[in-house]
Amino acid sequence: MSEKKQVTWGGRFSEGPADRMIRFGESVSFDQRLAPHDIRGSKAQARMLAHVGLITDREAKDICNGLDRIGEQVATGKFKWDPALEDVHMNIEQALTREVPAAAKLHTARSRNDQVATDMRLFFLDAARQVDEALVLLLKALLRQGERTRDIAIPGYTHLQRAQPVAMAHHFLAYMEMFGRDRERLAGFRERACVCPLGSGAIAGTTLPIDREFVARELGFVDKRGRPRVTRNSMDAVADRDLFIEFASCCSLVATHLSRVAEDLILWSSREFGFVRLPDAYTTGSSLMPQKKNPDSLELIRGKSAIIMGHVSALLTLVKGLPLTYNRDLQEDKPPVFDALDKTVDSLLVLEGALSGMEIERNNCARAVADPLLLATDLVDYLVRKGVAFREAHHVVGSLVALSEKSVCPLNVIPLDEAQKICDKIESDWTQCFSVRNALANRELPGMPGPKRIQAELRRWERSLAD
Ligand code: ARG
């Protein structure tokens, strides 16, 4: 018998795996991260086996105590991970069996296929909570900036061209809506993840009299009324990787939103816009140009979002051609989701920091929003109110803009008689249109940036983030 013979499944083999195969096939270097979930799952399994009489209570107790000791060693970095034992599951089981003879019974009615599926669902429930908590922190930072900028008007942009004035708070509230939907998506994901696959075995369950609901209850795979939830098809339970793809997709959408905020703040902090000043703690200098203060934190958020999105493609491609059920390809499913989680949470926290320390440059905002062209659309509305058809009103204001450009005269100081030559419906009260304050005050319908609306939205968010 070769010395390297694989201990857990080596029975039918005449020699152990080649060194290069060990290196190639191991996953323990990354799936050791699942250790706390694996231990939790194994404890539930042991208790269930005792509950149905497949092992004794004493054996279950010894197994659970042994698993707790291993948990300690893992947490303190004392546990010795061995790549020859492939993965987190076999590393833990082997270490346990050395200490506790009864551990040889732990794998009764279980396969690594339903074991890893269970570990990952426990991981996903925890991961979704982590992302959600970081989202709440970011939402609170956005809310604080929203409060501070309720009455700071800035140009809103389409095509990155000045469009219409909005309160800066309205801009922040827009992002809050997006991140709010991200939270809803994660809640839906959590709902689908909260189902127990243990008991599916390798592919077709087991002939032994296990109690799947017992394990589900032990591990918290229960519905709102505390009823256990178990997977309904053993082949689906070990083959599907929907949750992996869905989690990475949820992270991708968060990352997309983060990247857009980052991009806006990069623009706003540039000298060209100058709407905000970023905190030193989230910017860096140049090794050559002493005056530089670069928004690296935001650029990295934008950059890392690309990697997170790439993980969705990797996972979709990994799964799409696989025959049912488990194939070893699926071992590659973990690094992308681990990385998606880490990068998403880190990005959320970095943006939270950068945003919280950001100062608003009121004067620059005021200067930018003083551009009368931002109110050209309000002038169209003025003419509509005077009975001019919208298409005609649009044309009239277009002509006024052209006149202003040609005569190098700002739109709001075109002489009344000149304006009336273009449209006789224009009267001396047309200058009211050129007040940003009026423009915003006249937009109080749902979804609009009127000050009362914004105040109401800020209150609504405050309430919803308080619980
Ligand atoms: N490390 C493996 C993985 O993550 C565990 C499942 C192994 N199953 C098997 N049939 N070899 O995919």
How are the SSEs ordered, and which strands pair?
Blueprint: H1 19-25, H2 28-31, H3 35-51, H4 57-75, H5 88-99, H6 112-148, E1 153-158, E2 161-167, H7 168-193, H8 212-218, H9 234-239, H10 242-269, E3 276-277, H11 296-320, H12 334-356, E4 359-360, H13 362-369, H14 376-385, H15 390-406, H16 416-422, H17 436-441, H18 451-466
Antiparallel strand pairs: 1-2, 3-4
Helix pairs in contact: 3-4, 3-6, 3-8, 4-5, 6-7, 6-10, 6-12, 6-18, 7-10, 10-11, 10-12, 11-12, 14-15
This protein binds arginine (ARG).
Structure explained in plain terms:
The protein is mainly alpha-helical and 467 residues long. It folds into 3 domains: 18-108, Orthogonal Bundle (Fumarase C, Chain B, domain 1); 113-366, Fumarase/aspartase (Central domain) (Fumarase C, Chain A, domain 2, Up-down Bundle), CATH 1.20.200.10; 371-457, Fumarase/aspartase (C-terminal domain) (Ribonucleotide Reductase Protein R1, domain 1). It is built from 18 helices and 4 strands. It has helices spanning 19-25, 28-31, 35-51, 57-75, 88-99, 112-148, 168-193, 212-218, 234-239, 242-269, 296-320, 334-356, 362-369, 376-385, 390-406, 416-422, 436-441, 451-466, and strands at 153-158, 161-167, 276-277, 359-360. The strands form 2 sheets. Strands 1-2 form a two-stranded antiparallel ribbon. A two-stranded antiparallel sheet has the order 3-4. The longest helix has 37 residues, at 112-148. The radius of gyration is 31 Å and the shape is elongated. The mean pLDDT is 96. Bound molecules: arginine. Arginine binds at residues 27, 87, 112-113, 116, 326, 328, 330-331.
